[in-house]
Amino acid sequence: MRLTSTEQQTLHDASLRWFGVPPRLFGSRVDDARRGGDIDLYIEAEASLSPQEAFQRETHMAAELYRALGERKIDIVVNTGRLDLPIYRLAREQGVWL
Questions:
Q1: What is the phi/psi pair of residue 44, to 5°?
Q2: Overall number of domains in the chain
């Protein structure tokens, strides 16, 4: 995993604060052999969360991470259980818990 322990903790804490669950890191940052790439996070939010509320929390979390980690490309994928998208399956299969 190509994140420092401080970055991992920051991502973990922000996800707990905004969604109440830890995130999974997926994509290129999981592979130590690769270089560069954005930070891809997958979060399984509670099903009772409306899409609007999920988006609002995602926006607040992204702003918090921008302040904490600086100008980094961070993609936050939030699953509220309403859809079964291929990206959700990929993140669950290849993701690593933070």
A1: -95, 100
A2: 1
Mean pLDDT of 2-24: 97
H-run or E-run covering 21: none
Alpha helices in 20-95 (DSSP H): 51-69, 86-94
Sheet holding 24-26, edge to edge: 74-79, 39-44, 24-26, 96-97
Characterize the bridge pairing of strands 74-79 and 39-44.
parallel
Q: CA nearest 45: which of 36, 35, 56? A: 56
Q: What is the domain range of residue 68? A: 5-97
46-79: pLDDT as tens digits: 888 999 999 999 999 999 999 999 999 999 999 9
**Residue 39 burial by CB count (10 A; 0-12/13-18/19+): exposed, middle or buried?**
buried
The tally of CA atoms less than 13 A away on the side-chain side of residue 36 is 0
